[in-house]
Automatic annotation (TrEMBL):
<protein>
    <submittedName>
        <fullName>Lyso-ornithine lipid acyltransferase</fullName>
    </submittedName>
</protein>
<dbReference type="GO" id="GO:0006654">
    <property type="term" value="P:phosphatidic acid biosynthetic process"/>
</dbReference>
<feature type="domain" description="Phospholipid/glycerol acyltransferase">
    <location>
        <begin position="103"/>
        <end position="215"/>
    </location>
</feature>
<dbReference type="InterPro" id="IPR002123">
    <property type="entry name" value="Plipid/glycerol_acylTrfase"/>
</dbReference>
<dbReference type="GO" id="GO:0003841">
    <property type="term" value="F:1-acylglycerol-3-phosphate O-acyltransferase activity"/>
</dbReference>
<keyword id="KW-0808">Transferase</keyword>
<keyword id="KW-0444">Lipid biosynthesis</keyword>
<comment type="pathway">
    <text>Lipid metabolism.</text>
</comment>
<keyword id="KW-0012">Acyltransferase</keyword>
<feature type="region of interest" description="Disordered">
    <location>
        <begin position="294"/>
        <end position="314"/>
    </location>
</feature>
<keyword id="KW-0443">Lipid metabolism</keyword>
<dbReference type="Pfam" id="PF01553">
    <property type="entry name" value="Acyltransferase"/>
</dbReference>
Length: 314
């Protein structure tokens, strides 16, 4: 994932990008090489055994098995899981939603470990970068969890992806989307783009805002899991596997009703996810989209757009 490189041939001026890079990553305590290799072997064993165990487990017990698997994967990565539920009467013992209840789950995006962390709360499907299915180990899991692939550089494909999300929601599925459209380091973040929220509006599906962050052993925000700059999956995985004392904290905020305006829904979810936090890279102006070294104004802020397509802005 290279954000500092020139735009790809099919990229567009509204393509989400992040100013985060290698300078954002601050190392924490590390384990030795032997411990790192043991962790890697554990993750590999879980991934290879997942298809067999899924088939062997009765459908009624599959979700619990998959949740346990994700939690075991987090332990293999050296992470502890902390879930805080702020939903009050809307809280679900199952996690994001009761079985068979559709739910769009939205969170800020830090790195590939987000997928494992959210699945450890409750099994879900994801909208994820298209090449994720080609990654070692994690790619197989992506296929098994029915990831909806998205090519960020191809704006014309966005309405189709929004349509697939709507279909899954209509079928009673739980879908995780990362509306920033790219990864940030965990101490800085981008605005939530409104396009994906159209699927929730069209299907009248409630949205579950999730505040996700990684903490070091002292409880301070940790950027080690950030998948930013010129990171490869191998580089990022090695950094995570070597780290010691990390906790992934997932805060379930009160659900948001979809309403009829995806932009309003995006703003409400962003307030829920960010709270009083401020981005380390400065306050982001939602009327501007970063595009490489060029700042271009998002025309959808000042021009009326067809609400049903989701094509004019992320």
């Amino acid at each position: 994932m290279v954000f500092d490189a020139p735009p790809a041939p099919h990229s567009h001026s509204w393509m989400p990008s992040s100013p985060c890079g290698s300078g954002c990553i601050e190392p924490i305590d590390e384990v030795g090489t032997a411990r790192m290799l043991t962790r890697l072997a554990g993750v590999a064993g879980l991934v290879l055994g997942f298809p067999v165990l899924t088939v062997a487990t009765p459908k009624a017990r599959r979700e619990d098995m998959q949740r346990r698997y994700a939690r075991a994967a987090l332990r293999c990565l050296g992470m502890r899981l902390r879930v805080i539920d702020n939903r009050g009467a809307d809280a679900s013992a199952a996690g994001f939603a009761d079985p068979g209840t559709p739910m769009m789950v939205v969170a800020g995006h830090i790195g590939w470990a987000d997928v494992v962390a959210l699945a450890a709360v409750q099994p879900v499907s994801f909208v994820a970068r298209a090449d994720m299915v080609e990654w070692p180990l994690l790619g197989k899991l992506a296929q098994l969890t029915r990831v909806i692939p998205i090519e960020r550089a191809r704006l014309r494909e966005l309405p189709g992806v929004v349509g697939q999300v709507a279909q899954r929601l209509s079928a009673g599925n739980r879908i995780v989307v990362f509306p920033e459209g790219t990864t940030w380091c965990g101490r800085a973040y981008g605005s939530l783009r409104p396009a994906m929220f159209q699927a929730a509006v069209d299907t009248a599906t409630p949205v579950q805002p999730v505040r996700l962050r990684y903490l070091d052993r002292d409880g301070m925000p940790c950027t080690v899991p950030g998948f930013v700059g010129d990171d490869t999956f191998a580089d990022s995985a090695k950094r995570v596997l070597r780290s010691k004392g990390m906790t992934v904290e997932i805060v379930l905020e009160p659900r948001e009703h979809p309403g009829t305006d995806r932009r309003d829904l995006a703003r409400r979810c962003e307030r829920a996810i960010r709270g009083a936090d401020r981005s380390r890279h400065g306050v982001l102006d939602t009327e501007w989209i970063e595009s490489g070294n060029t700042r271009v104004q998002d025309p959808s802020v000042t021009q009326q757009e067809p609400v049903s397509t989701g094509a004019t802005a992320w």
